[in-house]
Amino acid sequence: MTELKIMMVGVGGQGTLLASRILGLVALNNGFDVKVSEVHGMSQRGGSVVTYVKMGEKIYSPLIEKGEADVIMAFEKLEAMRWVDYLKAGATMLVNDQRIDPMPVITGKAQYPVEIIEKLSTRDGTIVSVNALEIAKECGSIKAVNVVLIGMMAARTPIPEAQWIDALKAIVPAKVLDLNLKAFEQGYKL
Known about the structure:
Elements: E1 3-11, H1 16-29, E2 33-40, E3 48-56, E4 69-74, H2 77-83, E5 87-96, H3 103-106, H4 116-120, E6 125-130, H5 132-139, H6 145-154, H7 161-171, H8 177-189
Parallel strand pairs: 1-4, 4-5, 5-6
Antiparallel strand pairs: 1-3, 2-3
């Protein structure tokens, strides 16, 4: 692997920061240079959040331009639609099929787009849609959506599963580790 460009997109409070820390640790443990950058758009109020993670031999900048992302992990489906132009042709987007209404929809000033997954599926690449919220809930917490998606991504890399689990154990607080390990395993199986 020369370079891997990953974007995580979601809404404030969905755990993109934790997910980026897990990815970063796995990259470092495999001897890769890694750079991470986060952009918060009123994230504490449900705004858009995007995290860039680049890993490889030598990384100079974490930023990813349109058409460059090897993987996009979308924690919410409208965010997937907003950022799909960053996906490289033939690359993979993992989408949590969850709807979180942004403020303009809540106030009635805008409509939530319809058929988002269908529109994403017309793109050149692999779009994998999953109800990660339901899986996380079954594992013990809706906050584990991020780890379900990490598991899905991990299964698509050559990095052994055990290394991902070691990173989870190092980063996730002990009181929620078991449910996060379950969430990772469920995502990995997908």
